[in-house]
């Protein structure tokens, strides 16, 4: 067993899970390109896109679970939002994960790149929603939330992501949800979504045991730390961190596709 390889995978998972807890994403937008590009750059065997999407799915499951538990104690979860979007997104993610098993790596990478590009554009659009912390006063368009969650679940299930990196922009820009409530609720929705995508990937036979275990350990440690820090950081800073991460990922993945 190569401990250098294990430490590399752990570091990737720790960073992705820490950011996951802090800005309300599952971590796949960070882990997917890092797992795809860093191991071969360091001389290790490269993962296939199917293997990366499967490993990412299990990491997202545990990272979102741990982050959600931290935010739940702060009373920032909007249960109605989680219910409407959660049920819809798990159906889509389960369907998308099965579809991905029939697709070549190039198509999976392209789907991921397009999804990340849309998320990046949305993060730079003006956000007019109130930043109130009174969860009981928040209202949103329920049919629109259900439809958007179904679409997000399907395309994100294809790449093994739970869709949180686009759920947060959709909540902020389209549904006008306050930032901290969006972050907390998105982690709960991401956890629900990851059940479908993880099950589909496991049944598809692409799940790698050791990398998955390493990422689970990293997620369990790092995600709660990020979630606790998030509660103390200005919401505008959180938005800009997420926007920067998504933009950097978009640039990297599109460069790899085009060149």
Give a structural overview.
The chain is mainly alpha-helical. Helix content is 77%, strand content 0%. It has helices at 3-23, 28-41, 49-72, 79-100, 105-123, 142-158, 164-173, 179-204, 209-230, 235-258. Helix 3 packs antiparallel against helix 8 (179-204), helix 4 packs parallel to helix 8 and helix 7 (164-173) runs antiparallel to helix 8 (179-204). The radius of gyration is 17 Å and the shape is globular. The mean pLDDT is 80.
* Count, helices: 10
The overall pLDDT, averaged over residues, is 80
Q: From N to C, what is the helix and strand string?
A: HHHHHHHHHH
Overall outline: globular
Structural category is mainly alpha
Radius of gyration: 17 Å
The fraction of residues assigned to DSSP E strands is under 5%
Q: How many strands in all?
A: 0
Helix proportion range: over 70%
The oligomerization state is single chain
Low-confidence stretches: none
First-last Cα distance: 34 Å
Biggest sheet character: none
Question: Which features characterize this protein?
Answer:
259 residues; mainly alpha; globular
Q: Can I get a quick summary?
A:
The chain has helices at residues 3-23, 28-41, 49-72, 79-100, 105-123, 142-158, 164-173, 179-204, 209-230, 235-258.
In terms of topology, how is this protein built?
Blueprint: H1 3-23, H2 28-41, H3 49-72, H4 79-100, H5 105-123, H6 142-158, H7 164-173, H8 179-204, H9 209-230, H10 235-258
Helix pairs in contact: 1-2, 1-3, 1-9, 2-3, 3-8, 3-9, 4-6, 4-8, 5-7, 5-10, 6-8, 7-8
């Amino acid at each position: 067993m190569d401990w250098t390889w294990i430490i590399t995978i752990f570091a990737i998972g720790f960073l992705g899970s820490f950011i996951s807890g802090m800005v309300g994403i599952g971590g796949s937008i960070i882990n997917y390109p890092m797992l795809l590009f860093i191991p071969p750059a360091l001389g290790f065997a490269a993962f296939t896109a199917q293997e990366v999407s499967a490993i990412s799915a299990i990491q997202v499951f545990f990272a979102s679970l741990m982050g959600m538990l931290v935010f739940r104690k702060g009373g920032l979860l909007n249960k109605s939002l989680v219910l409407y979007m959660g049920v819809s997104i798990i159906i889509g993610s389960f369907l998308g994960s099965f579809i991905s098993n029939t697709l070549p790596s190039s198509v999976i990478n392209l789907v991921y790149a397009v999804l990340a590009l849309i998320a990046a554009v949305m993060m730079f659009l003006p956000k007019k929603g109130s930043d109130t912390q009174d969860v009981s006063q928040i209202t949103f368009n329920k049919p629109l939330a259900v439809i958007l969650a179904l679409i997000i679940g399907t395309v994100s299930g294809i790449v093994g992501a739970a869709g949180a990196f686009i759920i947060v922009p959709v909540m902020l820009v389209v549904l006008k949800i306050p930032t901290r409530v969006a972050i907390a609720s998105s982690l709960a929705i991401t956890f629900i979504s990851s059940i479908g995508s993880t099950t589909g990937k496991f049944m598809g036979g692409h799940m790698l045991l050791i990398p998955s275990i390493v990422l689970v350990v990293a997620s369990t440690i790092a995600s709660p730390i990020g979630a606790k820090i998030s509660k103390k950081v200005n919401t505008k800073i959180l938005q800009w961190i997420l926007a920067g991460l998504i933009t950097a990922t978009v640039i990297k993945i599109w460069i790899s596709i085009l060149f």
